[in-house]
Amino acid sequence: YFSRSFTESEQDAELLNRALFGSGEWPLRDAGAVDDETIAFTAKSRLPERLHPVLERALAGWTALSDPVPGMAEVVWALKRGGAGLYVLSNAGMNIEDQLRRSPAYEAFDGVVFSAAERVMKPDARLYRTLCDRYALNPQACLFVDDNALNVAGAERVGMSAYRFDGDVEAFKKALASYGLALA
C-alpha cells in the first residue's frame, strides 16, 4: 500500500517495497538500531537512480498514509470516559509521536512506549515490562491489544490479558465487556 502510494507502476512499487519497507533494515529502524538516513542510504543502493526521489518522498510521507481504524477512536474515548488507563506500546521508529499526534484519539492516551527509543521490540518481554515499570502498571491488571499474534503471546507471557485485534471493532467492543471494561 505504501509503496503504491508513491509510485506510478506496479513494477516500481515492488522495487520500492523490496528496497525500503520489505528490507532487512526496516525492522532495525523500529528496533532503534538504524536511523532514516541509513535506511535511505541502503535503500538507494538497491534502487535505480530514477527512483531515488520517490524513495525520499516515501520516507518523508509514509506515516501520513497510516489511517486510524474506523470506529476505533470512539472506542478509545469511551474507554477513557469509563476510567480506563490507556497506553501505546508500539514497534515503531523514532517518528512515531508525529504519527500518533494525527490520531483522533491521541489525547486519550496516558503514555507511550515505542521500540526504537527502548532499543527492544515486541514480543520481547523487556518492552512490556518497560511499559509497566514506567507507568506503575500491574501486568495482571492490563489488557494488551495488538493485531500480531506473536505480540499478543508476548504480552501473555508477562502476565497481561491480551486480545488479538483483527480489525473488527464491533467484536472488540463485545470482547471488552468480558474483560470488565466499560464503554462510557
Question: Care to give the gist of this entry?
Answer:
The protein is mainly α and 184 residues long. The chain has eleven helices and four strands; from the N terminus they run ααααααβαβααβαβα. β1, α7 and β2 form a beta-alpha-beta unit.
Key descriptive features of the protein:
mainly alpha, two-stranded parallel sheet, 184 residues, single chain, globular
List the helices and strands and how they pair.
Layout: H1 2-6, H2 10-19, H3 25-30, H4 36-44, H5 52-61, H6 72-81, E1 87-90, H7 96-101, E2 111-114, H8 115-118, H9 125-134, E3 143-146, H10 149-157, E4 161-164, H11 169-178
Parallel strand pairs: 1-2, 3-4
Helix pairs in contact: 4-5
Account of the 3D structure:
- It is built from eleven helices and four strands; from the N terminus they run ααααααβαβααβαβα.
- The model has no long low-confidence stretch (mean pLDDT 94).
- The protein has 184 residues and is mainly alpha-helical.
- Helix content is 48%, strand content 9%.
- The strands form two sheets. The chain has a two-stranded parallel ribbon.
- Helix 7 links the parallel strand 1 and strand 2.
- Helix 4 packs antiparallel against helix 5.
